[in-house]
Design goal:
By secondary structure, this protein is mostly helical. It folds into 2 domains: 78 residues, no CATH class; 64 residues. It contains 3 helices and 2 strands. Helix 1 packs across helix 2. The relative contact order is 0.10.
Length: 146
């Protein structure tokens, strides 16, 4: 299934100007299906295992994938973990160099090709550790050559 990613775009040549951020939440069919399935599973857990007898939100009348995805749009939040706007494979290579631009590397959460299953801070630090190791190795290699 095709995935849609959000975008962060520069709005001017002045670095002090804020970028335009479009998270594109729930715009891909896959994300909408996952949201619908998530709400259905929550409903099942609450009714069958937690013994809740009345659903308040999103409401028992919403049953189709599209109705549930629409409900997810209204109540969903991002929990602040945006990733992937400079995804490895698309924008950067496996050593975090920007494809087609010599000497420019990206090292932050934007290089993750997909969101991690847990929170993003530690994986971001791991990416930084790995790049630091690669740069150190490169530096040592160059030093022994001279
Ligand atoms: C409210 C909130 C709560 C979070 N809670 C958690 C949590 O509990 N656990 C967890 O794992 N993750 C959490 N995260 C996510 C985590 O903070 C991020 O995944 C992580 O910080 C991403 O690191 P980064 O280096 O990509 O970006 P950032 O940490 O955002 O670093 C970007 C840096 O670039 C600087 N910068 C921006 N523009 C410029 C410019 N023009 N010139 C120079 N510098 C610039 C900024 O000042 C900033 O220091 C949370 C995020 C938010 C917003």
């Amino acid at each position: 299934m095709a995935r849609c990613f959000g975008q962060v775009r520069v709005t001017s040549a002045d670095v002090r100007d804020k970028p335009a951020i479009d998270n594109a939440y729930l715009t891909s069919a896959e994300d909408r299906l996952v949201a619908a399935k998530g709400l259905r599973l929550t409903r099942e857990i609450m009714c069958e295992f937690a013994g809740a007898n009345q659903e308040v939100l999103p409401g028992p009348e919403l049953t189709t994938d599209e109705e549930l995805a629409k409900a997810a749009e209204q109540v969903g939040t991002s929990i602040f973990h945006p990733v992937g706007t400079c995804a490895m494979g698309d924008v950067v290579d496996s050593s975090l160099g920007v494809n087609g631009v010599q000497g420019l590397k990206v090292c932050d959460a934007s290089v993750m090709p997909r969101i991690t299953s847990g929170n993003t801070n530690t994986p971001t630090m791991a990416i930084a550790e790995i790049l630091a190791g690669m740069l150190e190795e490169e530096w040592r290699h160059n030093r022994t050559k001279t």
